[in-house]
Amino acid sequence: MSLCVPQGIKAVLAESYERIHRSNLVGMGVIPLQYLPGQDAESLGLTGQERYTIVIPEDLAPRMNIQIKLDTGKTFQAIMRFDTDVELTYFRNGGILNYMIRKMAS
C-alpha cells in the first residue's frame, strides 16, 4: 500500500544537493528528491508547469527510489534524499520544529 503526499506538502527535485542545503530542506519538512543518474528535467521533458503526485511507500527507508506521477500521465522515479532514519523521523513529524515540539509535549 502507498500513500500519496497531500496537497500543500512541498518537495524539491534537483540533480544533486550540498549536504547543508538538503539538511535544511529536511528540517523544514520539505521532501528533497534527486533525479536518478543520467536524468534531468530536460531528459525527462519537464517544463516546470506540471503537477506532481509523489507516491510515498509506508515502509520508507533512507535513499529509496520513489515514483512520481505527472498530471500529463508521465511517470518517472527519483531518489528520496532522506539519508538517515533521523531525517525520516523529522519528515514523519513535518520537520524538526514539529518533532521537537511533540517531543517536549510528551
UniProtKB/TrEMBL annotation:
This is Cytoplasmic aconitate hydratase. Residues 8-35 form the Aconitase A/isopropylmalate dehydratase small subunit swivel domain. GO terms for molecular function: 4 iron, 4 sulfur cluster binding; iron-responsive element binding. Keywords: 4Fe-4S, Iron, Iron-sulfur, Metal-binding. InterPro entries: Aconitase/3IPM_dehydase_swvl (IPR015928), Aconitase/IRP2 (IPR006249), AconitaseA/IPMdHydase_ssu_swvl (IPR000573). Gene3D superfamilies: Aconitase, domain 4.
